[in-house]
Amino acid sequence: MQNFLKFRFIPGTPMEKAAYAVVRRLQEAGHKAFFVGGAVRDLLLGRTPDDIDVTTSALPDRISALFDKAIPLGASFGIITVIMDEIPVEVATFRAERGYSDGRHPDHVEYTDQEELDVTRRDFTVNGLLLNPVAGMVYDYVGGLSDLKRGYLRAIGDPLVRFSEDQLRILRFVRFTASLGFEPDEATASAAKHFADRIDSVAKERVKNELEKILTGADPECGMRLLDQLDIMREVLPGIFALHGKEQPAKYHPEGDAFEHTMLLLRHAFWRTPQVMWSALLHDIGKGVTQSWKDGVPHFYGHEAVGAAMAEDVMRDLRASRELMDCVSTTVRNHMRFSHVDEMKPAKWKRIIREPNFPVELEIHRLDCMACHGLMENYLLMLDRMIQLEREPVPVAPFLTGQDLIGQGIVPGPVFKVILGEAEDLQLEGIFRNREDALNWLSVRKMTILKMKQHFRV
Description:
alpha+beta, Hypothetical protein af1432, 50% helix
């Protein structure tokens, strides 16, 4: 069954203009050509697509011959990347697929000139729509228009077959449900749950990318809760699943257990960078293994340090970049240090504000407070201190260096870090006005410093 919808398309963005030009050239050469997939869905929803895929009856060799710049990166699957006005456009030949023995790639690809066969192999009905941008017509062979109208996410055909072909589609089902704000089809959700324990067959990089898209998408809390409901979370994020039932002190956490607290952080997040969202998700992961009880009150002593190591393991397992892994683990380790900023010496809070990871850590502190007791005094205090610090002169280089200590007869070693750190604190607090003050202090403290050196040698 085929449905039609007139849809006038006027290319606006450079991507839309490039994709439109590709389709028009293919059609002028006598081939069928359409926009397909998420781009059509987004255009019908009034959204600007990030990229546009083109599908055509032209065979790969013919596509390459029609365009000056054509890269056969996926030619074995009938996919050619066409460079149009310096913009890459992925063009795929209509195809039918058979056999997915690895749970990801088809064992056999067969080209066809029938577009309906091409769309019926795709994942979800709202991603199976075709748009002829030249004629201004949408074609629907899978019921995507009605599902789009009612806000319904449903697999094309038998969902058990769709998910058995490619287990990554399980995570895509969660992502699209959350990002589009759609209602999940019951049969499709049931099939996703059925295949949850097969998610480990998917490459870790792909799992990480899908999870990150959920976390940085329109409704990360919805996405994580759906992962949990479909038994997927226990497979891909067991440390977060373990937060269920970890009761917290009611005085500070009226929201409930550690899992609910984490979900609330996701709900309140608006600066949804990968750094912030992974840190928010993992900030209390250590509570899953550190809970203890005293006088009927739960405690989580050391959960920051334990959680930092666990967060690093999670990010490493998901093949995250070293930069992202370090940011997240550092944020998890430091996320409790803002609870006493009102008692910090100026040198300490100035140093914290100047740390490169400070913006992420402060944002996690804000979210942490909003997701439990709602007390924002320390967060507002740090904002005031940021403004105060901005008004101060740009800090000069440290007045004292290791060479100065050597000049006083102090042999390089662990004591250097202690002495230079103390000197920097005194400088930040304004006690040292210049280098001369710092050298005078070093001269007076020389004997004490040498005794400290002996202590470090022991």
